């Protein structure tokens, strides 16, 4: 069966199904559209990262798209926790592609409503700053300090205090609460600390869901951090644009599939032109592909971590990332499952270097599991 | 000046000051009391992890206690982000001790209030389960499914679905929202998924603060995940005990200080008896101490990570943990600052192995920084 053509349950030929972390207009949706043209794939939103793993493992979708890490805020631990596969539910899944998406967050909500009399209605246009934003921020800060600290969630803290990159394009003093995904809060600490300090922040499952909740609040006091796309779709006002801490805010996504299907070249667009194996010299092939591996090491044998990592060095394969999560499978606390990415492809490996290193790791680690090989989409 | 005696601002001799992540009765407070006997130290609550770093760096406190990692939920990224010290504010701080605390979470709030007539008042005792908890859970689940998914935050997901370890000791169907710290939510996923599925979860800065917010809600519909100590202190009811996913739920804390003070032996209790240097052979000394180091590697030179890690192997020092966070200091995204812990002490190092490895790392890494050496409190 071709990857871009399949027979549906009713025997009708249909497009391959790609599930993604919804709802519609989420950042994962945007990354999915970038990788899977809508004319050739059926895109299916699901509610949670777990649903993506479940739906792809069950075969109900051919591919699943999950966020893996953000350049500002670090790893997506919920995705790592599913790759850890502690209940052994996702044995057939592997990563076949990475996708990068530039992420620009907006504060979205309702432009301050006309106040009921006796106050005169506030008339505003997008070009006329009716209130001095600095004054607003100072007011908010005073309010927060007067009410005592400790109410803020750590996501509203600034681990590296600096000025916000952008200012609100509309007054935001009527905003009393902000909904968003924890990762988005973590990427907008400077804006939140400068302009919305002390305001309640409420974690929800996605930035799109956050926008829906802001829309649903008739008081207009709720705002959300989401994409401009989500605001547009819902008819919400954009109160501030590009509120992310860093201009180069990028999220990296992984595409999951079930089985390796002989690892035929993916029928997908790639950011960089892929060349055939024979045209590439070995080192170029290595540096144009990456693999993901998880492993655990024997308990009470901390030297084993170094032993495993030295396998990559001995095999001449560069490590490009390393992560760890609690393993939660051993007898005691503070055992970890490690995740490494390294240059090289399990199947496009003419000199057998990747295969040898995977064997070496398996001999030293307590457990190890190849989680996928894929073309590199951007230079490291 | 002795570490356990100092001259205060008014020239009055006073005890050394230890700041911790407050408020009173937080888990960090409990860990602090465990390490710093109240008769010999002044314990000072501060509001945020940043405040602990600031207060210790400024000298306003002699020691600061920060949570570093939890055995169920992984690293405390806000602490890592401060160790990354991206604004170069904490150059004098180092870790001089680790403290382990067994963490038992409770659901605390108000026992279901007597309902207004016409309903008869519900009379309950702690031993009489007035409602079948399974029915409550099933009801909640139906409500949640009917209202559509996607509203849950990822912290409420179960990356490793399993039965909750404990049941509520009182009916909890009146609970409409739960306050807690994100880390605590992450440690109670099974209980939340089984008993409070679809209920709004609100992140706040500490579990103690969460308990205060539950107390402040006159409707009784707010609950909190916090310690039994916090509930007791505030006069809240404990609705369920030991709701953490794992019995061995443990948080590891670091004690910060400013400068090395000649690295005199700490005037503190330790979990294990420390012996003098001369009585310990070299390998025993190595395995009874640990050091923390951060480093970055040259951009676009992924092999450098393996180069740095091989320094530890070559020097015979076991790695005991590794973490990474976005560096946010380089020119582009997806550069990392790495944190490793390894066996060995910078100053209790008769054969000079630690010093040599630190030199080797400095030669290979782009930047590297020793962040402390301390006695190991528990076996790994």
Automatic annotation (TrEMBL), chains A, B:
UniProt entry tagged with the keyword Lyase: yes
Alphabetical keyword list: Amino-acid biosynthesis, Aromatic amino acid biosynthesis, Lyase, Phenylalanine biosynthesis
GO cellular component terms attached to this protein's record: cytoplasm
Pfam families in alphabetical order: PDT
InterPro entries: ACT-like_dom_sf, ACT_dom, Chor_mutase/pphenate_deHydtase, Preph_deHydtase
Domain Prephenate dehydratase: 17-258
Stored PROSITE patterns: ACT, PREPHENATE_DEHYDR_3
EC numbers: 4.2.1.51
Domain ACT: 293-373
Pathway: Amino-acid biosynthesis; L-phenylalanine biosynthesis; phenylpyruvate from prephenate: step 1/1
UniProt xrefs under SUPFAM superfamilies: ACT-like, Periplasmic binding protein-like II
Coiled coil: none
Keyword Amino-acid biosynthesis: yes
Gene Ontology molecular function: prephenate dehydratase activity
Record's protein name: prephenate dehydratase
């Amino acid at each position: 069966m071709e990857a871009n053509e399949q027979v549906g349950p009713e025997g009708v030929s249909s497009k391959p199904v790609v599930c993604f972390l919804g709802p519609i207009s989420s950042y994962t949706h945007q990354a999915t559209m970038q990788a899977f043209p809508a004319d050739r794939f059926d895109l299916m939103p699901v509610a949670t990262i777990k649903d993506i793993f479940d739906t792809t493992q069950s075969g109900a979708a051919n591919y699943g798209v999950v966020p893996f890490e953000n350049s500002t805020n670090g790893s997506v631990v919920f995705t790592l926790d599913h790759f850890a596969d502690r209940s052994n539910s996702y044995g057939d899944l592997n990563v076949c592609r990475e996708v990068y998406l530039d992420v620009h967050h907006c504060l979205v909500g309702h432009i301050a409503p006309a106040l009921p009399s006796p106050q005169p209605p506030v008339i505003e246009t997008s070009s006329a700053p009716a209130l001095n934003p600095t004054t607003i921020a100072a007011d908010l800060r005073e309010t927060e300090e007067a009410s005592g600290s400790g109410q803020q969630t750590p996501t509203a803290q600034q681990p590296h205090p600096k000025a916000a990159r952008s200012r609100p394009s509309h007054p935001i003093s009527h905003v009393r609460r902000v909904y968003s995904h924890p990762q988005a809060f973590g990427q907008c600490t400077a804006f939140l600390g400068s302009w919305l300090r002390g305001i309640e922040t409420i974690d929800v499952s996605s930035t799109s869901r956050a926008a829906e909740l802001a829309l649903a609040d008739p008081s207009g006091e709720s705002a959300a951090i989401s994409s401009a796309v989500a605001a547009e779709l819902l008819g919400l006002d954009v109160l501030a644009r590009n509120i992310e801490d860093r201009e180069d805010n990028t999220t990296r996504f992984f595409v999951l599939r079930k089985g390796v299907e002989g690892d035929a070249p993916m029928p997908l667009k790639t950011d960089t032109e892929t060349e055939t194996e024979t045209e590439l010299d070995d080192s170029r092939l290595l540096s144009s592909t990456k693999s993901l591996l998880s492993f655990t090491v024997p308990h009470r044998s901390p030297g084993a971590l170094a032993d495993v990592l030295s396998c990559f060095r001995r095999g001449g394969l560069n490590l490009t990332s390393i992560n760890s999560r609690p393993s939660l499978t051993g007898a005691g606390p503070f055992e970890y499952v490690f995740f490494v990415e390294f240059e090289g492809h399990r199947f496009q490996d003419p000199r057998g270097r990747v295969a040898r290193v995977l064997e070496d790791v398996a001999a030293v680690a307590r457990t190890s599991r190849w989680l996928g090989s894929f073309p590199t989409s951007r230079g490291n």
